[in-house]
Amino acid sequence: MRQLGKLSNGNIIVEMEPMEWLTLICGTERFYDIPTICREYRAENHLSKTDPARKLGISRNWVHRMEQGETNISLALYRRLIALAFRDKEVCLEG
């Protein structure tokens, strides 16, 4: 987390990575690991990499890179991934 500035009302403006933000709002140090989510979702549902790619609106190669931990993803894509993988489970997504 990095402080960017301060507003006249005293609020501080910060920049943080999506995982830092989720840790902050969920109150836990461990949230959901992207490579594990991808692999477990595919394994549990007997899916190829093409299936979640289509549902998430990304390429099959992007799914591979996410599973390998080779890429950073946007918070929007992270939220779509969580919603897809955990649609029947309770997860912390509210801010």
Describe it for me?
With 95 residues, this protein is mainly alpha-helical. It folds into two domains: 31 residues, no CATH class; 58 residues, 434 Repressor (Amino-terminal Domain), CATH 1.10.260.40. It is 49% helix and 9% strand. It is built from five helices and two strands. It has a two-stranded antiparallel sheet with strand order 1-2. The radius of gyration is 16 Å and the shape is elongated.
In summary, what is this structure?
With 95 residues, the protein is mostly helical. The chain has helices at residues 18-26, 34-45, 50-56, 60-67, 75-85, and strands spanning 2-6, 12-15.
Described by strand count, sense and barrel closure, the largest sheet is:
2 strands, antiparallel
Q: List the total number of helices.
A: 5
Low-pLDDT segments: 91-95
Instruction: State the shape.
Output: elongated
Broad structural category: mainly alpha
Order of helices and strands: EEHHHHH
The radius of gyration over CA amounts to 16 Å
CATH class of the largest domain: Mainly Alpha
Helix content: 40-55%
β-strand amount: 5-15%
- Compute the number of strand runs: 2
Order of adjacent strands in the largest pleated sheet: 1-2
Annotated CATH homologous superfamily of the largest domain: lambda repressor-like DNA-binding domains
Spatial gap, N to C terminus: 17 Å
Total domain units: 2
Q: What do the pLDDT scores average to?
A: 80
**CATH architecture identity of the largest domain:** Orthogonal Bundle
Q: Could you tell me the CATH topology label of the largest domain.
A: 434 Repressor (Amino-terminal Domain)
